[in-house]
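FAQ: What does the model actually see?

It sees only this:
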Amino acid sequence: MKLTIYNGEKKIVDLYENMLDVKVNGDNVSWRDGALKGIKMEYLLLNDDVETQDEVTDELISQDLKAKYKEISLEDENRQLRERVEATEMAVLSLLELM
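And it is asked to produce this:
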C-alpha cells in the first residue's frame, strides 16, 4: 500500500510506499513496520501500483482505499462474527431439514 499525504492545494507533501498490514483509524494509520498518529493533512491510501505525480488528482482520490482498511473495534468485530455464526447455524439447520 501507499500512503500519500497532501496539503490544501493538493500538492503531495509526503509519501510512504510498500506498507503491509495497513489499518486506518481516523487520523492514525499503522502498518507492519510503523505508524503515523495524528495526521492533520488530507491523505490517501492507494495500491502500490498506482502512479503518483507531484499533485493529487480527482482520479487518485477516487482510488482511495481508506474505508477498506478501516480498523474496527473489537466489539464491532465480535458482533459481526456472531452474526456470521448465527447465519451459518441457520443454513446448517435448513440443510438438515431437507435431508
